[in-house]
UniProtKB/TrEMBL annotation:
<dbReference type="InterPro" id="IPR038884">
    <property type="entry name" value="CFAP61"/>
</dbReference>
<protein>
    <submittedName>
        <fullName>Cilia and flagella associated protein 61</fullName>
    </submittedName>
</protein>
<feature type="region of interest" description="Disordered">
    <location>
        <begin position="251"/>
        <end position="287"/>
    </location>
</feature>
<dbReference type="Pfam" id="PF16092">
    <property type="entry name" value="CFAP61_N"/>
</dbReference>
<feature type="domain" description="CFAP61 dimerisation">
    <location>
        <begin position="1008"/>
        <end position="1126"/>
    </location>
</feature>
<feature type="domain" description="Cilia- and flagella-associated protein 61 N-terminal">
    <location>
        <begin position="22"/>
        <end position="241"/>
    </location>
</feature>
<dbReference type="InterPro" id="IPR016181">
    <property type="entry name" value="Acyl_CoA_acyltransferase"/>
</dbReference>
<dbReference type="InterPro" id="IPR036188">
    <property type="entry name" value="FAD/NAD-bd_sf"/>
</dbReference>
<dbReference type="Pfam" id="PF23150">
    <property type="entry name" value="CFAP61_dimer"/>
</dbReference>
<dbReference type="InterPro" id="IPR056299">
    <property type="entry name" value="CFAP61_dimer"/>
</dbReference>
<dbReference type="InterPro" id="IPR032151">
    <property type="entry name" value="CFAP61_N"/>
</dbReference>
Amino acid sequence: MWVLHLTALAELPATNQHQLVAVEKANLAVTVYNDKEEIMAQATFLDYPNWNVAKQDDWVSVFQELDSEIQCTPLNTLFMHLFVAVDEYSVGCCKEIIRTVFKAVPELHFIFLIVPCYMSLGSALITVFDPVGNVPSLTFDEDFAVHVCHRHNHYPQLHIRRARVEDHDDLMPIFLHHDTILKATYGEYFLAELIEAQDEENHAVVCEVEGVAVGFMSVCSRVNMQLLHECFDLGPFHGLCIPHPDDILEPPPELSIQESQDAELRSSSQSSQKIVEELQEPVSPEAMERVQGKIPEESATEELLSTVQSGNTGEMEDMEKLSQVSTVIDTDYYISNTSLASISPPEETSHFRPIYRGASAAFCIQLFCIDETHEARSLDFMNFVFSLFPDKNFCIISVPHLTPEFVLIQNFVKLIPFNNCTLEQDLYVFHRAGLLKSINIRFATFSDTPGVENLVSTLMLSKSILEDLKQYNKAHRDPDGTPLQAFVAEVAEQVVGIAVIRNEMDVEYIRSHYNIEDFIYFSHHQREEHGHLYHFALNPIFRHYTKFFLKEILRLGYKSCLYYPIYPQSREGKFQSSYAHSLTSALHCLVPVRPRRQIVYPLEKLGINAPSKAVSKEPLSYALNHTNRKLTLEPKITVNAKIVVVGASSVGISFLETLVFCSHLKFSNLTLISTHGLPGKKLLSTEQRKFLASDHCFNDKDHALMSLCSWVNVVVGRMTAIDRAAKYVVVSKEEIVLYDHLVLCTGQQYQVPCPTGADISQHLTNREVPNSSQRRYTGKVPCNHFTLNDEEDCFKALTWIRNNSITTEGNVIVYGSTIDTYTTVETLLNLGVRGSCIHLVQPPPKSTITCINNYSVEGAVEDALRAAGVTVYRDAILAQWNDGLHPDPIQSASFTTPTKPFKLPCAMFFSFFEKNVDYETFKAFNDACLVYDGRLVIDANFHTNDVAVRAAGSLTKFSNRYYSNEWTHSSFNSKEIGFQLAAAMLSLFDPTLEPVTEPPADLDRLIPMYKGAKIQGGILPGSYHYLHIAKPAIPTPLEVQKAQPDFGLEIVTGNAKNGTYFRIHINKYKMVETITCLSKEPFPASNYIRLFGQHEQLLNNLCARYEDELITDLYSYFTEPWCMALFHDRFIDLRKELHQILTSKEEGDLPSMEQLARQIEDEEISLKEKPRSYLKRVFQETIYKPLVEKSILDYLHYNQYHLPMYAWPGII
């Protein structure tokens, strides 16, 4: 192995640790593998020199003085800090690495290599680097030799020229390799004809390498501006027109109120909810950067936005709408600059749109193709094509939205369509000024204030930005002493961007509450290297320099990481958005960081062994976004496919969460259609009891930690139709939402019960009335009738209770037999409704299994209902409202029973009678010819009978061909279903995943079985806190389960009526299978959920201790310090690591522990002792014991900020 470690720490050897730090802090690290996945070479590159030959933030002048011909800048320069290679392959690997780096970073022109003068470069590096000169070091007495590698020697810029007819033969193989439609449509010589047809409006250019054309671009100055103005928000680019005195840019006075509301939306740094009924959609932050300043070109006297008298706007052919041919052929799917928060602007019938009178300032790319080998140089075309249209400042291109973002349009800005746009293409724009390479990022000064004011003048948070800039110029720190840094982006002496950061003061909190270590090795970053991004605004013309701006912030600010939090904001109005404590238009370049599940600590019991307050504190929850040095040059794969999710159920939210947190993918067209938008608005305060039971999949805090509204377009409304042929969903019978992939997760809802109409004056019984359970109520829903399905419904019910004095007078009827009836009764009691005024009416059961399925818990709840004075009626069927008269409002309700009917006065009626698919949803399925058999029919891969339509959750059932009607998605954990649905779809978008192989013929008839626990919980009458955790199973009465011979062991402590009940069922494999808790006191439910699926020995030999009567209270038992590690979010990783140790062959001549166990089971080994004793002895006498101990101690040491209650060698 040949190693050249170019560390600045000359006294230290090139250890593995230092190499790891070099890779961790590198802007770019490249590794070469062979076909056996063995590492052959590795190199790391940073944006500042090593050996301390210059300061990290001030090296440009040092290197420009070495050679005046080397015009190095932070944009076009990197430094090689480490190179490692296998000797015999070092030369080839070195050249491949250099070529790869130049290809990955198109702006890069120079790679510098700095070594001590006495050091030889070796046979590999000397082939690519040329000597430049010597420079002194700031910390060492010796000089250092500087070598440079030029782009043109490895991946040169392309030569661009006008196309000639003879280029046809070179170009056609490239076209036909990817696409044959053009040839089939326009004939074999369409390209030659296109080249021959050039005129003043149409030009064709090629790029060539060694005289051979390797790429082609056709451009045209005829653009249908009227169509573009109707379909896209072109405001940030002045409508792609030349400014004209008659332009109407301001709304008339009568729209001023509406416009002020729009301005609030437009200033938000995140997405807002789209209101279908009023045709409003949120706006991306980039669309609001209306920077009207003029950017002078580098070598031109004219101003780029100056008015000229030329430019034609002609109608285009109907076939293509935007241009004659808008075909793009390319295969690179990497890097994108489209913000995931980019959503259409608000649109109403009265919404003002600017009118532009000036001539068109844009030309369009009609046809583009380039060979894969040279596609990284696609931007080389742009200088030449802009020179063909000196009066045009914008270049636009439209591509089908399913086309992966290739290299060329990664430098363009994706325009935002209006909500009424039905074009099946995305529009991208590039400004002439974007070609300027003179962008300079530097610290802000006092003289920058006017430029920054002009830049941010139209932004709602402009005042906050300017105040922070003033504070930076005044003291470089906040009044409380927090270091403050402000940076500006400058082009041709004009400010085009502003960024403000502070030191991140909550580093420990971030590490302990977010999975930041998915992206960094935390221990390799100093505390002062963590920065907090407060403001980031960049002129959209230079949006493709966003990552460069962030990279320079890290370099100049001596930071390695940046964090940007998004705080939740709840509004009771129509718009739901995430609250920005600051502004950033760089969100698309950041990655969302998953929150970590937290242990609920018994702080009083732990005492001094509790975690620090920095870890255990609970500030306002926020969603965290992040970038670091490595991510500034790491590409993302953009997915422009329109994925529409219908229903904000736990399944739908879990599906969206999984897609959003795929850090290497960027889904730019995620849409959620939901009756009430995204959940998590915190409409009910924490003091109020919940009306509905919880499945413990998501709570309000979880929604705040995800901030899905930053990445998902939200359409508020109800799906009323699906057009499978045209691929769109109709919302609220008016608006359409286009889709490529439709995901149905509407679930089932409580429906308004249909009274049987029986006249109780005739003393009818249940046997004598018709069965109305399958009938649908079609009348007007009474104003005091409530079906509670989500938090919005609960909030409306709560408002009705308060506004109509329900707590002091009037009867409340709760109709149903689900667990939600109990939680609603308890909520009513807690709100002050007298128990004697609450009537719990239960219809005849459809099954012998109750909603709680535990006699002990049911008995305690029934006693509590009696004690509270709540009257319970059983086997009652709703007969009439108001004796069959007009039911609005309900004043009385009549019921029949197996014996005699009864009638109750009613001021409020809650119905939990039966959950079913909403009728409008069913009708949409039925009209779309989706197979429906009681529920929407799917296969094992979530597909309906339409390949573009998937469904999941309680809405669905498996096809009858699986012969498994007992099992549905309702049997499983909703969060796991959503995750598996996303995993099934990711194979369509993620090229890093292995191709999905078709299952064997006999396996595709099996339904998937999921392992996550099925959970329900809530607060039951008597103020009992209830939690039930069980494995997915076909419902069976508890007594029947206990009668099975392989039931296992039941551990019960406490008493249900006293509120101390805790039951654990250990199955025959000694695994925790069921947990039931009923307590008068709140308990840490999230901790107990982690116990599911654990072996009883992990629970400190639970069975043995229980049998020895050492455990009298499981609540107290699971607050003891020893079990905190079991609740830790990374305990599952420790289990996997230990399992890997025991299953791997650690010693050459000895089988693994797993193999030994199998040999004993198969009687391949004759033992003189008990198998358990033999395995234990082998474990202790071999390498396995120290390996396991080391793994456990490393786990405890690494997570000591969460687990300080554990001791390990060296701390005592």
